Amino acid sequence: MAVSGMIAGLFRRRPMVADRVAAGLLGLGAVVGLGGAMAAVASPAAHGLAWPWALPWGRFLVAVDGISAAFLFPTLLVPALAGIYGVGYWSQQAHPESAARVRVFLGLLAGAMTTLLVARDAVLFLMAFEAMTLSAFFLVTTEDGKPEVREAGWVYLAASHASFITLLAMFSALHALTGSFDLTAVAPGSMGLGTRSVLFLLALVAFGVKAGVMPFHVWLPPAHASAPSHVSALMSGVLIKTGIYGIVRVLEMLPEPPVAWGVLLLLLGAASGIGGVAFAIAQHDVKRLLAYHSIENIGIIVMGIGLAVVGRATHAPLLVVLGLGAAVLHVWNHAIFKALLFLSAGVVVHATGTRDIDRMGGLGRALPWSSALFTLGAVAICGLPPLNGFVSELILYLGALESLKVPEVRLGALVAPVLAVIGALACACFVKVVGSVFLGMARDPTVRPGGEGAWSMRAPMLILASLCVVLGVVPVIAFPALDAAVASWMGQPGAGDLPHLREILPFPAIGIAVAVVGAVAAGLWWVLTRAARGGQIAGTWDCGYPRVTSRMQYTGSSFGRTLVDLLHPILRPHRHDPVLAGAFPERSAFRLHVGDVVFERWVLPLVERFADRCSRLRARQSHRIQVYIVYVVAATVGLLLFLIDMREILRAAAFK
Amino acid sequence: VIDAVLHVLVLLTVPPLLQGVIVKTKARFAGRVGAPLLQPYFDLAKLVRKEMVISRTTSWVFLAGPAVTLTATVSAALLLPFGGMTAPVHFAGDLILFAYLLALGRFFTAAAALDTGSAFEGMGAAREVTFACLAEPALFLGLVALVKLSGSLELSGMLAPGIGMAWGRAAPTMVMIVAGLFVLVLAENARIPVDDPNTHLELTMIHEVMVLDHSGPALAAVLYGSSIKLFAMGAILIQLVVPVALGSVLLDWGVFLAAMVAFAIVVGVVESCMARLRLLYVPNLLVGAGVVTGFGLLLLLVG
């Protein structure tokens, strides 16, 4: 029954003529699908459907277990909200040339992601993966008139196909070894450690590219910056999580992981986490900055999975529950607050017409709703109480401290200081964004902010914001889904011998405590505001200087400068210092630009060298169709010879 | 229950006294009589009664700064054990809530500073969040080491008198943790050698410069909050250095409060004997504190 709900959700998302119909159908599909996912959590036995099809390989095999269900929640929720937001943000009137395209591919993308999560057959999985990649490509290149958008689209397409080919290799190898395309757990003892490790590494690279794990993240920042904001929200919130789902699924299939896999994941996660937030601080483009924060949060999630793998390898169930529980809960939380941040940033971009933080300022006055909602999202993404980001980080910290008891990975506890660095850097970064976009005075008089936009844009943000609060105060409502995911990851659906998350900490009491903190703070704020009502209104006091102008404010660049200087071995900033010389110095300015080090220093030179090598093949290009036909015939004959058993033919000839 | 009430009472009333003790110590070192010990209380009472002056560039964030910071600091301090008592609120993993509540306060203080659009306050906010990035890992390295030493995930267990045994088992680690934490306490509470709490108009200020525009009751909330923060972070050090439980409630409180006064005198002595560091060297100091605590943790994990 769960599955029929899912499939109904899937195929009803066909694009319609009008914005509203499309958004309504997306929402309806999401509601049906969410009902199905909840049913799957409630009754833990796997529900499945299998249909044969006419293709030579694979079959239509779908099923929902705990892992699928846990990932389905954000994957169904965010596209529906993004669709509603799109009615106001990318309407038919404002964008007659591309509105239909965005609607069509938004629906396709949502359907493809849902199929991917329930597919239990490798061929179906790969088809959904490719459908997802292509529809996301057409969404990223919505504004294909701009050269930087086209470039971002190509980088994304190339990276996704590199990921697809690796995945194809992994599943082919798996098929060769097990003789089946089913995505089910491999019997323990049927494969050597070396074979399993090769499969794991292939999967890690393929899904790492999709998830944006550093150093495979190069496609992510430009693609997120170029897409329309609700598409960025969808990509950052759920599309990259399909990579995480892939890693979790493959780890579920491969039996008896060694501790080394967990340590590798911990290292990759730490690199992604610190690297992502470090690059984020140096950005000027608000959407690029948010994209780098996605890399950071993926790092946090991967560290959680790493702890879970360590726990599974050393038979420490508590570590598995804490690590995987934190990872899956952070998948939800990140989907919620990152979608909120991208949607409210979308309002800002819509209202000002620029993405440059250093040209904004004081927008809180023109956009009171979006500024409050963005601030809430910023507090959540920094992992601060009383919002949802804190809960998943708390569980992850507990996992890190729990690993002190595992003698094989004594340094696993270092996850805690790493998380602390990430948290502090994220705080610095979001103080910078909130401060320079919404607070203070306007920096650029040419930027005249428009209004908030329609209610169809505000309502999805309000829903996401209230989810941030609800999951922060009563996280217990998410725990059945997390426990189900952990149970099916450990291959024991419904088994009672794993510890339950709700029994580890007194979460309801903690929730009440942080809610009281929030309420007291709000009360104190109200008291102070009342006290201020009778006070004087004056200009900002700038140490006696009477003519304060907006240009004297700290800009986002100057705010981040000390940190960028401290981090320069990682960031390699291109810096332009002001030159002040002579009695009458000329106009000069300070500029700080940080490119993507991995892309500029490693990927680009490598690709260029490869392209250079390939250009030698151009000598074979004669621009005559006859020659090309010869190539085609030769290739076909070659393939046939490869497939046909030659001895068979010789024997047949001998018979004659 | 009586313990909890006493805990809250001490927490709410004693902190400004520490500021008085520090000022008195510094005055004595300079050969002056100094302001009365209770001066901080008089200052707070005066500020609460005063009128506020608000900048016209500010929004709701400006007053949310002091409100959130004060609340978060008080709640964080409720998680700490004082003397031989357990804290009023305690659960496994409360050390993380403690650190994150302080971070919540920092987020809103810095945002409120940026809300004024002033160059000075932007500078202070940028420095505050930058140095926090260096201080947080040091704090967590110390906390992880304490978890390992005490075998408890609660602050009330980690800082219980039982931690005294650790001085016998792992004295080098304890020395390193205490040294690192002392540097952190000075840095986080805007004391010399990182920051100078006496001046307002210096370009090298960090914490004080962020609250230049706050006045009246809002400034009172800021000052009260920072005295509670100093008290709370000092209490962590005292619990580690003077892990005494005499069995009698009154005696325990007496020892604890006497130790806190001694801590304030030490801070005063440090401020009298040292100059403020050049701002460029502050990161070195904080990273140094992190390295020292990290080395202490490594000794535990590898040894």
Describe the model:
The complex is a heterodimer of chains A (656) and B (303). Chain A has 656 residues and is mainly α. Chain A contains 25 helices and five strands. In chain A, the strands form two sheets. In chain A, strands 1-2 form a two-stranded antiparallel ribbon. In chain A, strands 4-5 form a two-stranded antiparallel ribbon. In chain A, strand 1 and strand 2 form a beta hairpin. In chain A, helix 13 runs antiparallel to helix 14, helix 13 crosses helix 18 and helix 14 packs parallel to helix 17. With 303 residues, chain B is mostly helical. Chain B has 13 helices and one strand; from the N terminus they run H-H-H-E-H-H-H-H-H-H-H-H-H-H. In chain B, helix 9 runs antiparallel to helix 11. The longest helix of chain B has 32 residues. Chain B is globular. The mean pLDDT of chain B is 88. Chains A and B meet through helix 14, helix 15, helix 16, helix 20 and strand 3 of A and strand 1, helix 4, helix 5, helix 6 and helix 11 of B.
